[in-house]
Amino acid sequence: MADKKSQDKDIVRTGLTAKTTCRCEDSQAVSEKSCTAGRMKKCTTQFEGCDAFCTHADIIQKVNDNMPDEETLYDLAEFFKVFGDSTRIRILYVLFESEMCVCDIAELLNMTQSAISHQLRILKQMQLVKNRRDGKTIFYSLSDGHIESIINQGMEHIKE
């Protein structure tokens, strides 16, 4: 059974306009034009937009001139995807405090070495962590201070 919100409103966005389909009191989804007068429950569209379509060429040109190329934007999106996994975030927090080997990180986070190693490989590919060998042990640390700054700014944002 669909929840009440989805029964009450069915918004379809097409271009810059929205078509609103509402529920009559007898729970049938109909358009406002076909609803018998007085039975239509009040609905509003759920997206933000301009009341009238107009463009501002000077603003568009200014933004377009400063917009990075598609490849750069793709790389940036891939970079931020790395932060979308809570295990990787936990590993980064561990490495804020100290460089550590896979065994220590696995013990601290109560995970397998294989799982930690897999996540560290991703973090290393994205140049968020680096490693150094000391005999048979490989120690991992943050690549640079930017990583901690990014995480801290994200934390500030969600705590606002």
Describe this structure in words.
By secondary structure, the protein is α+β, with helices and mostly antiparallel strands. The protein folds into two domains: 50 residues, no CATH class; 86 residues, Winged helix-like DNA-binding domain superfamily/Winged helix DNA-binding domain (Arc Repressor Mutant, subunit A, Orthogonal Bundle). The chain is built from seven helices and six strands; from the N terminus they run αβββαααβααββα. It has a three-stranded antiparallel β-sheet. A three-stranded antiparallel β-sheet has the order 4-6-5. The longest helix has 15 residues. The protein starts with a helix and ends with a helix. The N terminus is likely disordered. GO terms for molecular function: DNA binding; DNA-binding transcription factor activity. InterPro entries: ArsR-like_HTH, ArsR_HTH, HTH_ArsR_DNA-bd_dom, Metal_resp_trans_reg, WH-like_DNA-bd_sf, WH_DNA-bd_sf.
